[in-house]
Task: inverse folding
């Protein structure tokens, strides 16, 4: 286990979070994030009267941010209740397998509890076997689904 702490992101962390998000997108074989991602995230984290997004960062003792997790409340129609949706959890490759991911997961679970939510949900690509094993070791249950997106013009 490496010494690290997880804390809520601050505005000054957002350029690094955007860098990590770009690495995350590349790892998941997705399109890169938008160029102004840090500014967009700031709106959801710091500029809204009631912030919708939560961003947690994993920080080493020297101040280096090596991972992040983002989450926001969502609604389950089938269960008629809210849950916390973890949109992202990412660690730089050199910092995986050191217990930092568990710290991030614990912090996400704590965020759910602080909001009065009894469940966290997320998805990971079916080919990401390392992540699937990590989540299973933490007691998470998986369900196969295919994720779709549809672009619409506002």
Result:
């Amino acid at each position: 286990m490496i010494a690290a702490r997880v804390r809520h992101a601050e505005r000054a962390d957002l350029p690094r979070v955007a860098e990590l998000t770009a690495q995350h997108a590349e790892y998941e074989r997705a399109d890169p994030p938008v160029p102004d991602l840090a500014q967009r995230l700031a709106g959801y984290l710091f500029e809204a009267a009631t912030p919708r997004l939560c961003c947690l960062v994993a920080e080493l003792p020297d101040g280096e941010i090596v991972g992040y997790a983002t989450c926001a409340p969502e609604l389950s129609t089938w269960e008629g209740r809210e849950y916390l949706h973890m949109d992202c959890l990412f660690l730089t490759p050199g910092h995986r397998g050191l217990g930092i991911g568990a710290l991030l997961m614990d912090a996400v679970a704590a965020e759910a509890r602080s909001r009065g939510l009894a469940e966290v949900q997320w998805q990971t690509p079916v080919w990401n076997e390392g992540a699937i094993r990590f989540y299973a070791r933490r007691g998470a249950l998986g369900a196969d689904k295919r994720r779709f997106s549809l672009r619409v013009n506002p």
